Amino acid sequence: MRSFKRIMKIVLFLSICLAINGVFVYMLVPNSFIRIKVHNIENEKYDDIFVGSSHGFAAVNPVVVDGETGRKSINLCYGGEYLRDSYYLLKDACRTHIPERVIYELDPGYWVNPDTENPTYAMAYSNMSPSLVKAEYCFAKITDADFRSALFPWFHYRKQYGMIPQNLKDKREESYRNFDAAPLEEPTQVMSDEGFMYIKNSEGEKTKANMVLWDESKVLEEVPMYFHKLVRFCREKEIELVVMTTPVPEETLEEHSGNYKEADRYFAELMEEYGIRYLNFNTMETDGFQRGVEGFSDYEGHMFGGNAENFSRVLAEYLR
Amino acid sequence: MSLTSFEFVIFVGAAVAGYYLIPKRFQWVWLLAFSYIYYAAASLKILFFLLFSTATTYLAGLLMDRIKEKQADREQRIKQKRRVVAAALVLNFGMLAVVKYTNFAIENINALLGSHLSFQTIILPLGISFYTFQSMGYLLDVYWEKVEAERNPFRFALFVSFFPQILQGPIGRFNRLAHQLYESHDFDWGRMERAFILILWGFFKKMVIADNAAGFVDEVFGNYGSYGGAAIVVAVLGYSVQLYGDFSGGMDVVRGIAELFGISLDENFRRPYFAVSITDFWHRWHITLGTWMKDYVFYPLSLSKMMGRFSKAAKKRFGKSIGRTLPICLANIIVFLLVGVWHGADWKFILYGLYNGLIIAFSGLMMQNYRKWKNLCHINEKAPLWKGFQIARTFLLVNISWYFDRAAGVGEAFDMMRITLTSFRLSDFWNGSLMLESVDLVALRFVIVGFGCILLFLVSLLQERGVKIREAITGRHVLIKYAVYLFLIFVLPALGQPPSAGGGFIYAQF
Amino acid sequence: MEKLIAILEDINPDVDYANCTTLIDDGILDSFAILSIVSELHDEFGVYVTPVDITPDNFNSAQALWDMVQRLQG
Predict the structure, then answer these.
(1) CA B406 → CA A299, B356, B402, B409, B413, distances in Å?
(2) Which of A289, B286, B459, C38 is 20 to 30 A from B165 via CA?
(3) How many C-beta atoms lie closer than 10 Å to residue B317's C-beta?
(4) Which residue of C has its CA nearest to B364?
(5) Out of A261-275, B122-136, B256-270, which region has the weakest mean confidence (pLDDT)?
(6) What are the boundaries of each domain within chain B?
């Protein structure tokens, strides 16, 4: 009986911890694109799924693509989504409905730059509903992190205590509960419900910062491993896998032509080995969208919304 | 597995759960398995080094015990044992030296001879500085017949590899640690609670105090040219706080984890900044390294025949008092040179060790004079004012040593000292220059570190008075207990900082 | 024995060596003092103290020291 009392005390204590944690989460964790994307993927059925990085996030408008292909697609890309994340997002999606096709937007920079702990690190994970996939994802990614990232989802937002009033207000709105993307609109960008990030046109200097250049000697061990897992998973579930690389501004291609050419060669070879269709818009001579930096918000490769919609139309031709 | 990673939490959880569920007689096997899993998870390749040390030490120990039993002739016995222990010491310390100091040697040979030997890429095997010292201590204990060699190779492997202490110590002794590892332990709620408090407190010191101080410290030490003496002094003080929080925090976490299994590891820290002299400081800072050096280097060296001859000559030349103290001073300086070298392959660490060694040696020589002067000035040793003076003086001396420890190199250390003295810029303290822009949320960090230090100071003060804090907490009413636990748990993500780039605990790199 | 106490008082005065039994445990004798004592023991009584002998049991009181000296003298 003494043991029972003790255990009850522990259960009580843990419940208090969970409650306090929940309060902190409610106050500090803001609404996010990833939250909406994960919700959509778990509750809707899609024929095509786009996964990848912020390039894909800004370049692919599912509505435009669907207009040509006649399918229903979703843009699951976000900045900081590594292959490991794409893989588990896909697995999570397959719990609801197995898509016909997956298009992986490949940014060579993500193959040579390690995933680091930042606010987005555990975001997809914490927004997933509990399942075996989530557990697997936890062991694949979350266990490497600081235990505070894993156990306290609000940890990376602790400094944004100034946002608490705004967060509380947002979360009481219906649009929050309905997973609308509209409240997240900012002066520079707005996300559509299908996950496309429309970057609004702007004047002013474009940054060359944040560029991660390809370097074959720096390829991380785990990225090719997850690619292999992705390929195998798609084969098992009979999902068509297409890989694409969105165009980067011409000026960037010229300035770093060595790096980009090597990346092109590396991935062309890799996709041939696997027998996978690879659409590398940097090497393909297509037009229909602006290739110069006037069509992009930076030199790194994030398209302006209008340009992206044109690009999406072109992309759709190849995906028909 | 980093001590702060989620997988380590799961690992320890599994280890502890299993420990109390399996039959008691297998508990030590469970510990051995988990220790090797921990080591292998870090790297399968460097497991070789651990096995090598374990095997050579185990066999040498057995061999010496055999010689002790079989060899009747005392002379022969000593000679044979000496051969065995010498071989084992050379092998193990040799390996440590090669792994740690090859590139340093190459660098200096190149500088000296103008050669162009290339640097080797050598990975430092996890924990090699710690487990080598611990097993060599065992070896010498067997040599001196203080302990009997461990017969069971697996039990011995556990003594060498016990996972909580492999990253940063403490350096344990066979006669205190081994039996605890092998004995069975019953589950004890009270002990578990106390262990958790210790673990959380350790993380508090590391994450809230040390990691928040790191930002300012790293920035100033990295770019000291842009700052005046005031900023440098604040950075050195910040390092005082950071190093203590980081190292002693890590120690608390490690000791707490061991306590979850019912095992008491030796203390490594005892409120070092309350020390009244540098000698006292080294009885309170990194205690197990100090006592290891004392028992296995300092005494043997001081009592060696060679020192005996030096002592005779010194007594003839300088008289009895100084004569008998000089060899002790010499041995002491050698010990601290080793302590410096142990910290790393850099001249600044050698200077760091020399600095400490010389101060202690000097005060040893001056001991009788100090006594005379104190009597002349009618200074009461027990007076709080005198004690306060001693503590402040020691704190100043220790902080000077941090220049050598933390600066990028010897040149940088002296540069920073020069700037401190010649361009102090006192006004920086009130004109806001210390609110460095390149340090994220610097003002808030000062507040958090300050708060942490106040809490740390109060706790230390109580401990110095002999108060058993954890027992005091667990004995209180459940509401107070829970409040303390909740505070310790939630303050870590609320006020804590992720480790600076390069991550982890400072001493885990040795 | 008186000789021994004289040595102790020379190295570290102001201690009641006749009655104190916690010279090591209370930190009254530090390692410098211990080694100085050993050096004097060698000069005065001709004994060789080895590292193994430096234990609290042997050094905690003047009596324990005296017992050790007699033991080492054989």
Answers:
(1) 40, 15, 6, 8, 8
(2) B459
(3) 10
(4) C32
(5) B122-136
(6) 6-187, 188-269+439-510, 276-406
State mean pLDDT over B46-70. Answer: 92
DSSP3 helix / strand / coil % (chain B, rounded to 5): 75, 0, 25
The residue among C2, C3, C13 whose CA lies nearest residue C41 is: C3
DSSP type of residue B285: B
- In chain B, which residue's Cα lies nearest the Cα of C49? B303
Cα-to-chain-centroid distance, residue B315 = 36
Which of B6, B197, B444 has the highest number of chain A CBs within 10 A, making it the mutation to test binding with A?
B6
* Inter-residue contact B251 to B201 (CB < 8 Å): no
**Residue A1 in domain:** no
B to C contact (≥3 Cβ pairs closer than 8 Å): yes
pLDDT band at B275 (very low <50, low <70, confident <90, very high): very high
Size of interface B-C (CB pairs under 8 A): 42
Q: Domain count for chain A, please give it.
A: 1
Q: Identify which of B136, B270, B217 has the alpha carbon closest to the alpha carbon of residue B402.
A: B217
Q: Is residue A22 part of a domain?
A: no
- Rounded CA gap, B333 and B360, in Å? 8
**Nearest CB to B328: which of C32, C51, C54?**
C32
Mutation for testing the C interface, residue in B270, B274, B324, B371 having most C CBs under 10 Å = B324
Which tokens go with A193?
């419900």
Quote the domain boundaries for residue A203. Answer: 33-160+183-318
Nearest to A132 by CA among A179, A85, A92, A79: A92
Q: How far apart are CA B411 and CA B413, in angstroms?
A: 5
Mean pLDDT of B174-196: 94
* CATH number of the domain that residue A222 is part of: 3.40.50.1110
Q: Enter the DSSP assignment of A49.
A: E
Chain B closest-CA separation from residue C63 CA (Å):
22
Query: Tokens at residue B248, please?
Result: 């002693």
Which of B144, B292, B302 is the best substitution to test chain C (most C C-beta atoms within 10 A)? B302
Confidence band of A161 (pLDDT split at 50, 70, 90)? confident
Q: In this predicted model, what pLDDT tens digit does every residue of B451-507 receive, in sequence order?
A: 999 999 999 999 999 888 888 888 888 889 999 999 999 999 999 888 765 467 887
Residue for token pair 């185990």: B58
Q: What is the DSSP letter of B120?
A: P
Residue of B nearest to C38 (CA): B303
A28, closest residue in chain B (CA to CA) = B494
DSSP of B404-445: HHHSSSHHHHHHHHHHHHH---GGGGTSSTTS-TTSTTHHHH
Chains near A (3 or more Cβ pairs under 8 Å)? B
**In-domain check, residue A14:** no
- Strands A197-199, A189-191: pairing is antiparallel
Is A150 within 8 Å of B493 when comparing Cβ atoms? no
A-B Cβ pairs (cutoff 8 Å, strict): 50
Chain C residues with beta carbon closer than 8 angstroms to that of B328: 32, 35-36
* Cα radius of gyration rounded to whole Å, chain C: 11
**∠ Cα A140 A146 A151 (to 5°):** 85
What is residue B81's predicted lDDT score, i.e. its pLDDT? 92
C68 touches chain B (CB under 8 A): no
Q: What is the ipTM of this complex?
A: 0.92
For chain A positions 142-181, those within 8 Å of chain B (CB to CB) are 142-152, 154-155, 158-159
So what's the pLDDT on residue B398? Answer: 96
A201 close to A251: Cβ distance less than 8 angstroms: no
Is A18 domain-assigned? no
Query: Do the Cβ atoms of C25 and C32 come closer than 8 Å?
Result: no
> pLDDT tens across C25-62, in order?
888 888 888 998 898 888 888 888 888 888 888 888 88
Write the DSSP assignment of B101-112 as a string of letters: HHHHHHHHHHHH
Strand-pair partners of A48: A73, A101
